Amino acid sequence: MVADNREKRYAQQGIGSSYLFRVDHDTIIDATKCGNLARFINHCCTPNCYAKVITIESQKKIVIYSKQPIAVNEEITYDYKFPLEENKIPCLCGTENCRGTLN
Hints:
The protein is of the alpha+beta class. Helix content is 11%, strand content 25%. The protein is built from 1 helix and 6 strands. The chain has one helix at residues 2-12; strands at 20-22, 28-30, 42-43, 49-56, 59-66, 77-78. The strands form 3 sheets. It has a two-stranded antiparallel sheet. A hairpin with a 5-residue loop joins strand 1 (20-22) and strand 2. It is globular, with a radius of gyration of 15 Å. Its main location: nucleus. Keywords: Chromatin regulator, Methyltransferase, Nucleus, S-adenosyl-L-methionine, Transferase. This is Histone-lysine N-methyltransferase setd1a. Residues 87-103 form the Post-SET domain.
């Protein structure tokens, strides 16, 4: 509920992109206004990485793992795995197996 309200508020404030990551059913991390550079990793339908939530000393952390060797200057991507919704978000990854939408 808090994340939904933030997303609406960001839209009202003219913030074009929000960086919300669902950790589990009850927890969403909001890196919209602060966070490290990983928040800018783009979605891809055939990504070279995947995101995993791990627990370190009772704190949940998001870790990005490589699925394959990544070349210098190659973009790092992962599948956002957004839930299916009626309002579709177009995918712009451009890969051969692109699903067409993020959700």
